[in-house]
Design goal:
Elements (H helix, E strand, L loop, with lengths): L11 E2 L2 E2 H20 L10 H16 L8 H16 L1 H8 L1 H11 L35
Antiparallel strand pairs: 1-2
Length: about 140
Amino acid sequence: MPSEEVGHQGGEHDGLQTAELLQYLDASLADYGKYVSQIGSLKYTAAQLLYYRDEVQDMLDALVNDKGIDLKSRWIKVRELDLQLRAKASIFVQEVGHANFKQYQIINNPPVSRWWWYLNRTTVNLDHKTPSWQWWKRDSSGI
């Protein structure tokens, strides 16, 4: 048993044991990592990445005040994956679709602190073409 769990078998968070939360956190973190590594080939499942990142954050938030648990290695892993996600943001947003991002924001109403739901605001909308009558707004690519 990892030392971070010793003495916390009886600890509960919303009815779940600390050990169960840690297992769920690790599973969610693994799934988030899998999705981040597959950006560009996720197709219709791309939006699931947003929900996995939410799950990771929810578990970290639930465990952050438990002084007996060292979450440092997990926070480091989250940071690494977040940096990869940010580096691939344009590909990811294109895969989900700008319009779909807006719909997910309306449906889920995530707080602004959950930046991954707002990646579409940091990338260029390649799906949007300037109407032909707005010729003055076009760049050399015709967009």
